[in-house]
Amino acid sequence: MRKTLAIVFAGGRAEEMSVLTFRRPKAAVVFGGGYRMIDFALTNLANTRSVENVGILTQYRPSSLVEHVGIGLAWDFVGSSRSIRILPPHLKLSGSEWYRGTADALFQNMDFLDLHQPDDVLIVSGDHAYNMSYEPLLRFHLEHAADVTLAVTPVDAEPSRFGIAEINAEGRVISYMEKPKHPRTNLASMTVYVFRREVLMEELRRHAHSPQAPKSFHIYDEILPGLIERRRAFGWTHHGRWDYARTLDAYYQAHQDMLGDPPLVDMGPWNVRTSPWSPRAQTQGPARCRPSATVRDSIVCGGCDVAGTVERSVLSPGVKVGKGAVVRDSVLWNDVVVEDGAVVDKAVCDKRCVVAQGAVVGHGTAPPANSELPRSLTCGATVLGMDVRVPKGARIGRNCIVYPGAGEVQLASGSVPSGGVVRTPAP
């Protein structure tokens, strides 16, 4: 039986996600109310019984991610034969440095590959939301005697935002381009690859020791083009929902797609696993809807306390909505408080935000794109970073971004125009 080792890329921030990744990697971003983005990849791996050992490559502000993953208990990666190991940048006798990209992160952890001696290395991204068993992909890779197999999926909108593969009738990848202006197909790379270990290690060494070695060193730029040209490269197509959520617009829309009857995305059958044991997680009781509450077409997690109106929204554990308050078309993360009479209309609020009495988040109509990220935030949603406190009676427009920790000082004027940005001193 062939042995497969899994590697999860979980170290990137994603600039387009703005304040939501200000203090965490994208893999640790809350998704679907009660999950982190990395939960989807780890659940898929947990359901792939041929994968026994997992390495997680992380770099950017990894604390919350490391605490969340722990020893892998939530995904059954414990015991004498299954394990999860966090692989941050580390000191060596020579050449120690931060990861310079996905391929460099693999190169700096070649000893991990040598330790386990797998036949194949399954590489997945930790910041995409999808439900997929990797077993058919691994079988396809074996049956075609492939050196590398790319998982691809058809995308309907803006294929130029992705790495695009062209595949012939045999299943061979005949071309691959990263974010082409004029894509020849709509088959987007899912950042899921299977490599024969010997091939991967040979290619990593080849590029890392090249006199023209680039400052950044990525799978999609430096490794895949040569493999497609010189090796047996195949493409395996996944049909099913796949949320990249690279922009704030895409993140917001993914949550709206979870609502409605029937929803465009129903994650119930996915049986996503998450960790309830991290030090920052709190045991939550059932959600409570008080006599004055109205809740329509929403996802409400445990520990929420609703006395106002909640419509078409996703509430993470511990959210409180006061009497007379309105939460509409919004995504509220853990322990957000919307006080009596406040309005949150089309917003994404990071953890522990407080919207004080009578304040309005999402004020006005016909918003311009956000001035700081005009290509990431255009849908009209306002995004509040962690621990923002909106003062009593304040009005925050649409497509606004408010940096973590903003409060009475930064919002003293009481009004933020649509498309505006409220910054705070760097921590």
Characterise this structure.
With 427 residues, the chain is of the alpha/beta class. It has 2 domains: 4-249, Alpha-Beta Complex (Spore Coat Polysaccharide Biosynthesis Protein SpsA, Chain A); 282-427, Hexapeptide repeat proteins (UDP N-Acetylglucosamine Acyltransferase, domain 1), CATH 2.160.10.10. The chain is built from 8 helices and 33 strands. The strands form 7 sheets. Strands 5-4-1-6-11-8-12 form a 7-stranded mixed sheet, sandwiched between helices. Strands 15-18-21-24-27-30-32 form a 7-stranded parallel sheet, with no helix packed on it. A 7-stranded parallel sheet has the order 16-19-22-25-28-31-33.
Summarize this, please?
With 427 residues, this protein is α/β, with parallel strands linked by helices. The chain is built from eight helices and 33 strands.
Strand content: 25-35%
CATH architecture of the largest domain: Alpha-Beta Complex
In the sheet with the most strands, the strands line up as 5-4-1-6-11-8-12
Low-confidence stretches: none
In the residues, how many domains can be counted? 2
Gap between N and C termini = 50 Å
Q: Mean pLDDT score, rounded?
A: 92
Biggest beta sheet summary? 7 strands, mixed
Helix content: 10-25%
For this structure, what is the CATH class of the largest domain?
A: Alpha Beta
Structural class: alpha/beta
| Anisotropy-based shape | globular
Please state the CA-atom Rg, rounded to the nearest Å: 22 Å
Under CATH, the topology of the largest domain can be stated as: Spore Coat Polysaccharide Biosynthesis Protein SpsA, Chain A
